[in-house]
Amino acid sequence: VSPFAADPLVSTVAEAARGRPVAQGGVEQILAFAPDLVVLGAFNNPATGMLLERLGIRVHRLGTAQSLEAVRGEIRALAAALGVPERGEAMITAMAAGFDHLPRLDHPVAAAIYQAGGWRAGRGTLADDLFIRIGLTNITAASGRNGFAALPLETLVAAAPGLIVVESMGEEAPSQAGELLRHPVLAASGARTVTVPMRLWACPDPALVAAAALIAAAAP
């Protein structure tokens, strides 16, 4: 597994991964495990996969999955590569059931996704797709902004969101970037705040249901 697999800040399978052999990503180390299949993330060095394939190793590349539909596609593709397509379909079915049981807002709520350092998520992101699924209006997407970029605190407060969703990887602990999340103007804005651990929506897996449930429960 990767070095991140056993890190509870970013992994939903930290307990299962603890104690398993770790591959740092070097081709030589990967080859020493004599794998039948190597699964690479979207941000792994592309040269690693190409070299492994040249050496006769089967490689599956994960995508970034910036929508729930893309998440389902990634699950299906990986399950097929592993030779267990039925397990992928069972996971997708369980996720759909989880989303179906979430409360859906019956009134408009403007919300914002915010991170340490002032980063936000606009249109074309998985976080925005989750907002749509819950029934929230993402103020960043509504303003026409796409993808991830910095959002000035003044712009956030002026939009008067009813809910601020803070993505957390622990970086809001004492740091210059984290201080922005504790700015007095946010407390004075009257917006509710909910913290969602990054591990719950960093990857295309069933933890997305838990992320959506946290957000839906916090909506005013």
Structure description:
The chain has 220 residues and is an alpha/beta fold. The chain is 41% helix and 15% strand. The strands form 3 sheets. The protein has a 4-stranded parallel sheet with strand order 5-3-7-8. Helix 4 runs antiparallel to helix 5 and helix 6 crosses helix 11.
Number of helices: 11
Calculate the mean pLDDT score and round it. 87
Structural class: alpha/beta
Spans of at least 5 consecutive residues with low confidence: none
Termini Cα gap = 40 Å
Strand line-up in the sheet with most strands: 5-3-7-8
Order of helices and strands: HHEHEHHEEHEHEHEHHEH
Note the overall shape.
globular
Number of strands: 8
The helicity comes to 40-55%
Estimated radius of gyration:
19 Å
For the sheet with most strands, the description reads: 4 strands, parallel
> Strand fraction band?
15-25%
Short description:
This protein has 220 residues and is α/β, with parallel strands linked by helices.
Keywords:
single chain, 220 residues, alpha/beta, four-stranded parallel sheet, two-stranded parallel ribbon, 11 helices, 8 strands, 41% helix, globular
Topology of this structure?
Blueprint: H1 14-17, H2 27-32, E1 37-40, H3 46-54, E2 58-61, H4 68-82, H5 85-100, E3 110-115, E4 119-121, H6 126-134, E5 137-138, H7 139-142, E6 148-150, H8 153-158, E7 163-168, H9 176-179, H10 184-188, E8 192-197, H11 207-218
Parallel strand pairs: 1-2, 3-5, 3-7, 7-8
Antiparallel strand pairs: 4-6
Helix pairs in contact: 4-5, 6-11
